[in-house]
## 1
Amino acid sequence: MANSDAAAGRTVRIHSFESMGTYDGPGLRLVVFVQGCNFRCAYCANPDTLDCAGGRDVAIDEIVRMAVSERPFFGRRGGVTFSGGEPTLQAEALLPLFERLKEEGIHICLDTNGSVMNDAVRRLLALTDIVLLDVKEIDDTRHRDLTGRTNAATLAFADWLEENGREFWLRYVLVPGVTSMREDLCALCERFKGFRMLSRVEILPYHTLGRHKYDHLGMTYRLDGVMENTPEEVEAAAAVFRSCFDCVRVN
Ligand code: SF4
């Protein structure tokens, strides 16, 4: 049996799919929301992806078929983005899928919190065209409050990408009064200034679109009362980032 045939029978734990996504990587993309996450971000818009036992098993073959059928819409820049949830938790299972997509010449983005690094993840990264690295907070105390985890692994992940010549975007959710402090934005700029592999900084304004899911799941939403950003606040953050990077976008 050929390698790709063997891979076809394998499965990945998936939450859902989004076709023609425009927010997660360049161009039009098929976004694959992988089930399970090791963070508990207070602002998480997809709390239904957190439970590793949730979702459903989807055959790799089915995902490849879906990607190939949507390939005409990808154009020169689009492709498939793996998001979640945290895709690297299933790195071993995703490897044959990434290999199949590369055989088909499909562009791959990996949206990750950067907390997991092991041999399978390194092999996954070798097959990834652009990593969308979500840095939640540069101040570790605030990062722990926000996510339940230290940011040390994420920062080490970024260093690995830089040292190993893997292109990445830095993504930052701007939460008023939580991650919007100027001192933290400046410290983040200082930490990433000079990274050659960082090709875009994306500011993701805070939104509450996933808020209703918390009640449904019986979970507590910890940011009740936090307002969405004003345009001035987003612009002020963008100005801080632009003072260090020439590739700043507001998503
Ligand atoms: S890392 Fe992403 S999926 Fe996981 S809790 Fe945070 S926002 Fe949600």
## 2
Amino acid sequence: MEETDNRKSVCIIGAGLSGLTCGMRLARAGFHVTVVEELASPGGLLAYTRIGREYLELTPHHLRKSDKSLLALIKEMGVEDKVAWFDSTWQGRASHRKVGYFDGGFSCLISSLSQEITDHGGRICFSTTVAEISRLSSGSYRTTCVLPNSTRFVIDSTYVVFTGSCRTFINVSHGLPIEMDDRDTMMNVTYSAKISAFMVLKHENSQMFYQQMTKGADVPFDRIINHTSCFGQRGYGGSVVYLVGSCRVTDPIWIESDSDIMLKFFTAYKKLYRSIRKSDVKSWRVTKIRYAQSEQYPGIDLTNPCENLYVCSTGLARFNTADIPENRMELTVSLAGRICQMITAKEELVQNESDTLTEVTSLTRELTDVSRG
Ligand SMILES: Cc1cc2nc3c(=O)[nH]c(=O)nc-3n(C[C@H](O)[C@H](O)[C@H](O)COP(=O)(O)OP(=O)(O)OC[C@H]3O[C@@H](n4cnc5c(N)ncnc54)[C@H](O)[C@@H]3O)c2cc1C
């Protein structure tokens, strides 16, 4: 499959918050948008599943009132009336800052962004992995995609926006004219992996805190998040507890089966809360995230490593980890906004130059006709 009309076209790799935000903005601005996502559904780190009558994120997420760009996006998508603000207790202390959560979960933001892309003629290709980005002699980009049955197809576009990890970007862009130093810098952006497990418990957990850090050699997770103690039981049919641990992909736990991981997590949780029994767990799910959190950021801006190609990756946004560690979606959305502005400004410039060229050509023709008499 090959696209012939590649005017103002953009290929966006990744249907997480960054990719969908870029897709929505550029589709609205008149670009021909194609989003390619290797997973079967949208959301990336905000992916969700159905629990009872509700959608629930596979990893715990909440909003902050300081998330200005994110809240502006939520308003723009018309889902701000679905956000409610809650008091929360962190590490046993009441927080002075409220946390926000959607009625219906973050799925309402993800699906409204996806809908906006398709409503503007864009398309989202799921279960499609980008294997290579190359540049054609015309200056356009060619993105080679692979389907689960190993079939390959290409997408030709004027612009490319890559939203996966910096490492994946380097692996798929080896043929592009990117400075060796920039490649090395991107390759050196390190990520911690995370294992997130949630349990739906039959009874409301007696713990009233929202988040609690759990440090200890024998505890395989470092955070407990009592989702329902803060946001309510909604339609889950039980109370939801997340257990989140950081690890390296070289740690033995990374290759363990989901049920072995869950058993380890549950055993450690039971040591902390002795009254809990296995029969209290209605359902559970383990999610492994390879590139969960970037730990080291380049000191230079590498979001535009070659002409018309942009890397909108969390690994390139510097997070204020000391004060507001949870404001990463905010930085994700503002980076996506900045990249879309760069693309639309570039396109306007190209359009103006082409209009000027057309005017000069017709003026030259008129002058030639006049001089010929
Ligand atoms: C456990 C956890 C809790 C968090 N909680 C919060 C919170 O409470 N508040 C907050 O502000 N932030 C939070 N964050 C951070 C937040 O999730 C991220 O900032 C945001 O979701 C990043 O979105 P993204 O689109 O940039 O990246 P991603 O969501 O990672 O999306 C990238 C997408 O690209 C796809 N992709 C990658 N490579 C390819 C390829 N070769 N071909 C096709 N597709 C590809 C991936 O499948 C993925 O869907 C949390 C993160 C984690 C891990």
## 3
Amino acid sequence: MDKKISRKDFFKATTAAAVSLGVEAALDSTGKARAEGEKKVRLGIIGTGKRGCSLLGTLLHMQELEYPAICDINPDNLAQAQAMLRKQGHPEPEGYSRDEEDYKRLVERDDLDAVLIATPWEWHTPMAVSAMKAGKYAAVEVPASITLEQCWELVDTYEQTGVPCMMLENWSFRRDNLAVLNMIRLGLFGEIVHCHCAHSHDCVDHWFFDPEGNMQWGGEYLLKRNADQYPTHSLGPVISWMDIGCGDYYDYLTSTATRSLGINNYFRKKFGPDHPNAKRVYAQGDIVTTVIKTKKGNSIVINYDMQLPRPYDNRWMIQGTEGIYNEQRQAIYLLGRSPEYHEWEPFAPYQEKYEHAWWRAMKDSSGDFGHGGTDYLELQQFLTAVREKRQTPVDVYDSVAMRAIIPLSEASVAKNGTPVKCPDFTRGKWKTKKPSYALES
Ligand SMILES: NC(=O)c1ccc[n+]([C@@H]2O[C@H](COP(=O)([O-])OP(=O)(O)OC[C@H]3O[C@@H](n4cnc5c(N)ncnc54)[C@H](O)[C@@H]3O)[C@@H](O)[C@H]2O)c1
């Protein structure tokens, strides 16, 4: 390399080259390109179903990764992932599929740095805890823990082992959400007061049930629980927007669930009134509305909305003393900046102006790699933390803050919307911890 080229120019040039080639730019946590030949990350994967294989497809666009072992109790799914790796020129990973506990042998291997978990919900916490106890970074699909006991188990294991655990909440990494985070940190909305978010995703015909009407494992939770069962996609950007865990924390919440009509109606219309699922009683209400009051006195409204026919939506909205952002309208209003009094203006120019460094560095190379590039960025940032042996961008406290809403909303719904006190999983650290997620240097 020409010695006259500065380190900054080198990073700029290598990033541009990687981006133009459409391969992994191998960026570090600040969005800078790395030198070649850096340490490989040795990754184990548990759960190679739909999501596991989708994440693997994204990982295969990245360099400096090895896959010594994968685990799935379904031999076909295991073989599919092995074939994906072989096709890309990787050696065939050792497969673990003896029984439901076989993942324990995988995490004990001494040739793994990290384990990625994409199994059904009840397995997330036991698998992540095993990985952390074996000294491997854990990346766990949403929602990870589904009870308060599991939330504490993850926090306790992290505090005992010092091994990071990150929930893979991809919407924390969305391009628009990170630009909004930059704007909040610059004070453009003034003091933040209120936020709204939702997971509006009709999953009845393809995830809770298959297209033939057979109940999948996710659907079984609808028979047993009445809660916000999927709050992490709603809260992904919100916890950093609202400084939850680093300056503020949940105090209490109330949750209200509607009647459950959507699933029966779907089956009646598609399969006829005599189909068993057209008459079955589901515990889960169609819409759950949760209101969180924070310690600072702010509020967060969360909607669970996964059983009625509708287009996908997250309905993010954040409001402060000097302005408001509305994702659904793709619009913004800022006091003293927006051209017309009390008129929305388009968000797009703000998106450009306040683009997060992560997206500035990699957006052109990653558009096709899962959820518009967010999966790529999320995995890349997780792997960078593993490589650099430091904390993951979303830590265990952030992760449990997103998922604790499941059991807490369930408790409130069961008591007709009675306020439920939220446990402090940080054990008071939220009062002094400074924001660390996605800081731009
Ligand atoms: N972040 C996202 O955008 C997103 C999207 C879809 C799914 N997900 C999450 O991903 C996870 C997996 O969902 P999916 O749709 O891929 O389900 P899936 O049923 O397609 O895959 C789950 C896999 O886990 C395997 N498995 C089950 N128990 C196991 C065990 N004890 N040991 C090893 N393997 C086991 C199954 O055989 C299956 O292959 C869920 O938590 C889901 O909520 C996240």
## 4
Amino acid sequence: MSESALWREAARRLFPGGVNSPVRSFRSVGGEPFVAVRGERGRVWDADGREYVDFIGAFGPHILGHAPPAVVQAIAEVAEQGTAFGALTPHEVELGRRISEATGLERLRFVNSGTEATMTAIRLARAATGRNVIVKFDGCYHGHADGLLVRGGSGLSTFGLSDSAGVPEAIAQLTAVLPFNDADALKGWFDAHGEETAAVIVEPVAGNMGLVPPREEFLEVLRRIPRRHGALLIADEVITGFRLRYGLSGLLPEADLVCLGKVIGGGLPIGAFGGRADLMDLLAPSGPVYQAGTLAGNPLAMAAGIAVLDALATGEPYRRAEQLARHLENGLETAVRRAAVPASVVRVGSMLTLFFRAQPPANFAEAKECDTAAFARFHRAMFDAGVLLPPSQFETWFVSAAHTEADIDQAVTAAHRALLELHAGSE
Ligand SMILES: Cc1ncc(COP(=O)(O)O)c(C=O)c1O
């Protein structure tokens, strides 16, 4: 048995499904959990010493690649001084100040995950408006708080259905689920239910149904309509914040509350949310909305975040990561054309998805039309060629500033071969 197989076997006995987060099971590509033991720049190594070009990038944080020396050093230095105090530390102020200056958020609060950020932003929106109903978009993921694990209802009902066992329908029914990119559906919702709606939560660029950019008219309605009805707009920038550029994506500057995570913690557990002072001061201890965290503002996560933001502030890592991602996009597009498979490449900045659908999807219903069996075969072929892709058609690939031209060339060459094999298999 290989080393990886031994670890998987041990993990299967300890953890449900052998993992601590479902997508790591690789089930949707018919694979086995990847056992990672080391990462450096754009590459990772498994427990058997095999090396891979990595486009999972820990699902978003690693815009500087794995183990950037400045980040590792910052974590080590801070760890020597103590890892947690349950008290205010200068590190929180340092990272908070950088984020506030770059985003314009007047006040923010650090939490330990994106899930906590969105969950609390919603509690805050409900308290601020005195309303209970939340609007989300089908295919957007905002973490696993009960009220956000909701999928679209059928027929005329836009009120949601529970998308996980254990989420009471009574909670799911407080969340309406609308199609992403559908300006008319959003307008229609507010015409009918505007007065009950506390908030609309949205990923400005959807990254959890594969990468789906927003249409301008959709953004325009998001910016205007909730506010007109006294509802708040929550921009979930857990993926896009500090990933597309230094600060927020810039797509929804009117958002009342913004959620952050991933990049701002440099690969350590983090989340944050923020907004105007008058709204944020509703939070305890200033106001009546309760929220807390034993390890919130943890010195290690703060130190990692400061080091990452200092490297990003020059703008150079964004230029580099985007240049590499464009190279990857072009290479994949050529490979798709040559192999004549029905597929499309979507890229925004350093994020990318290869959809097994001739036209890029505009919403989740279209994304679900992708040939997921073809994606699974493609994933396996890329894996065998030493390229680690996110293990689902509905995830985004992350390119880092620490990938090299050689990494991208290896991926493009592997994709050419994999797509030609797919084409041959379909004849
Ligand atoms: C857009 C978005 N929001 C929220 C979350 C939840 O973050 P976490 O996994 O840190 O709880 C994620 C996680 O992937 C995400 O992509």
